[in-house]
Prior knowledge:
Layout: H1 4-16, H2 21-24, H3 39-64, E1 68-70, H4 78-81, H5 93-109, H6 119-137, E2 140-141, E3 156-157, H7 159-179, H8 197-214, H9 222-235, E4 245-247, H10 262-268, E5 282-284, H11 286-294, H12 298-304, E6 361-364, H13 366-379, H14 389-404, H15 409-412, H16 430-442, H17 447-457, H18 481-486, H19 488-492
Antiparallel strand pairs: 1-5, 2-3, 4-6
Organism: Fibrella forsythiae
Keywords: Lipoprotein, Signal
Signal peptide: 1-21
Amino acid sequence: MKFKPLFIAALMALVGTGCNTKDFLNINTNPNQLPTASPNYVFTNALNVTTVNMLNANETGTYWAGQWSQGNGYIISTTIFAYNFTNGDFNYWDSYYDNLEDYQFVINNADATNQKFLKGPAKVMKAMLFQQLVDMYGNIPYTDALKGAAILAPKFDDQKAVYESLITSLDEAIADMKANAFASSFNTSDLVFGGNLTKWIQFANSLKMRILIRQSKVAGRETYIKTEINKIVTEGSGFITGADVAVGGASFYQPAAGQLNPIYDRWGYDQTGAKRALNNFPRPTQFLINSLKASNDTLRLKRIAYTTGGESSTIPGTSSKAEIAANYAGTPFGASSGYLPANTSSVGPSLLVKGEYNRSFILMTGAEIQFLLAEAKQRYSDVSLPSTAQAYFEAGILQSFRVLGANTAGAAAFKGSKIPNYDWDASTDKLAAIAIQKWVALTGFSGLESWSEYRRTNLPVTPQSIQVPDNKRPTRLYYPNTEAGSNGANITAQGAVDVFSTKIFWDVD
């Protein structure tokens, strides 16, 4: 077990309970026993850590989903765009498991500290992180994981079995939340819903839909998926609707070093308003921008990207040039020259506006949830979801406009427009339309989901990287060398991993 996050949280707990520096450093305290952290402080810290971890995984996913490329003001990253990576690259494993240990600490200690209301939310977060680990690595330590010194070399579980277990664990989380009301005095420890357990249950149901629909192309899973969807409907709490699942916000992020929204801090500006060195690194792809133009999807285009030349230096949140289609230009995926900031678009105001350091960090968008429901109803028309696939599809586009900050009236304009993959009636392949609209809606918010959905659906058909002569693309990540060093026998037991052909179980074609 990694103790650093827990020690930080323990220190927060000591400070939060009125312990001053003199007390903390008192030599009469037991030097052989670590201080005990309060679960509520650990939970708050864990949520914040989750955002940073997801930022890293989302960045890679956004590139490999074909939504972003690299600006040409930097030496091209061959690990990302030529796929020249090893088990020393893209190690999201260690940080995810460290974060999972925090949530497990909350689960293990909530009863003893009379904070039972935190167990359900911690289990929901734990399920989300394990789902993402499966989507990146396949088989992973699960039943033996998070045991600390009791199991130093945890065995790996079959990825399909982990997915099934996550549904069960989310059911347990919902039962916990129904049985233990959230104490209002601890509302501020919940950076997501402020202690609203109904919304946590809706989030759990929404995650269950993600996990179930991710398996929809796996042979023999239809009956299981339909049964579980009907169980969600019967439970009755519903799904997150008309909103997003997000961490932090105006009352949490502050204009100080280390306290900014992670996205703003990485690609936007520092606490003084100075541009970060990486401000021009991620660039919307030529494919993304040209696709939006071709579909007359200009309202979302203006939110997903700034014009060439970037954000205005005098009016934050607006482009330096007139916001007309001709002034938006994407970067070909993997291009290493010829596409500088002056002649390409940058990441737009849906993510980055100078001065807006305190936006919430989104874990799951309301748009994604509606598209999950649309696919469920389209694939399994007899499930007991109350609306039609078309209604969910159109709601997904509407929610995409909302989260981007675009005028939502623009979503309704696509009804009857005859534009394939936008107008339901004009889309001959309904599942393809859902997949393509989800891809657009996830842009900038959920890169790992974008990449996972791209691997599952093969949609949209994005161009190959200019750096890669053949058509190979990553299907997963390597197990990291850190795990190989401490748990090598169990990694060896997984067999040879080829990141271009060893697929996650739900990636069947």
